[in-house]
What does this fold into?
Amino acid sequence: MCARQKTVLIGVTGCIAAYKSCEIVRAFQKRGVRAKVVMTEHATEFVGPTTFRALTREPVAVGLFDEPGSPIHHISLAQEADLMLIAPCTANVIAKLAQGICDDLLTTTALATKAPLVIAPAMNVNMYEHAATQRNMQILRERGCHFIEPDEGFLACGDTGKGRLADIGEIVDACLEILEVEQDMAGLNVLVTAGPTQEPIDTVRCITNHSSGKMGYAIAEAAAARGAQVHLISGPVSIPEPQGVQVHRVTTAQQMLEASQELVDGCDIVVCTAAVCDFRPAAPASRKLKKGDGTSELEHIELVQNPDILATLASCEGRRAIVGFAAETDDVVEYAKGKLASKRADLIVANDVSEGKVFGSERNEVWLVTAEGEEHVPEMDKVHLADVVLDKTLSLYDLKMA
Ligand code: PMT
It folds into this structure.
């Protein structure tokens, strides 16, 4: 859902190191980058497309005529990529790329893309040192292609020398540097609550609200893209899970509280965007209540107040920045100031939800309310707003930790 999230297209070629591409996919996802995979036929001899499909939750293309949803597949893949990484890359594929030969989906896509091309070779030492391979690499370098040199060591073929696929961290860092994803939240642990809660009345009915989860998911995804380790505690929503984020699904406020309490220790930043139901039925029925059976149980549902998750987390031991949202229909900033104090938050992001605004929408206009005053943030899409909220949160975090 995040428009700013970068996409890396990972090309996997037929090499014993192909299994390491699975770890490369995971490493990108952990850094908040979307990973898609394209494979050569030979690569499928080493790892199956199903593995990559499961890891990326995206279709994995192999043949030029596979047609997974696109009439001109190599062009759509080429356009989608912010960066194309071929890792591991064989001498054969390097040679083809140097000569502009495109006889399969991977090489065709590499020729069609305008995204930066990064190649991490892996092969036998003699093949790597061969004049033909070195010349082909030189041709590609001159065209602006980035190479991540292989490591030296014991090779799968039994030889020793240069040819082992470079360290995965080194490959991913080099790509991120090229992508220029700002990693200003690297090393921070972030906890986000999102979506509505559902409080059961009986086995088929519940009390809930219209939160779609979009605001909270955008914040979680943006924090992950900026390098944070993110736990997202989500109420029931139907939007796709953000990449690079650990999602914990809950239903009720009580479950959201328990999941938050388990994760808050070691957390640097807490952002509560969830629209938690303030009340729940005191005694949910374990059957479907009848409306006309004279019992009137549905007419008089006794409610009890739910725990305040934000206030509870703010009172937990440890130093961290605490951010809440305030959904108001009038006196938006004034009520937000009250919540800032009563919930002991560092920042309240106040939004005007009157006339059906904000809930479920792609856009939002907010006021950032702190002890120092309030700042108005004009309406924008939630994806970009997420970064504005995180910028403010980071500055408060730095002040608090100074
Ligand atoms: O999900 P979307 O469709 O994108 O909509 C976004 C949103 C409207 C849900 C979001 O922008 C928002 O305003 N979230 C907070 C909704 C809310 O419950 O506001 P509140 O003013 O009632 O609560 C204030 C704060 O206390 C919130 O951070 C809330 O998460 C927290 N809270 C409230 C009650 C409770 N029992 N526990 C809490 O932690």
Notes: The first strand starts at residue 7 and ends at 12. The chain has 13 helices and 19 strands. Residues 189-284+297-401 form a domain with the Rossmann fold fold (CATH 3.40.50.10300).
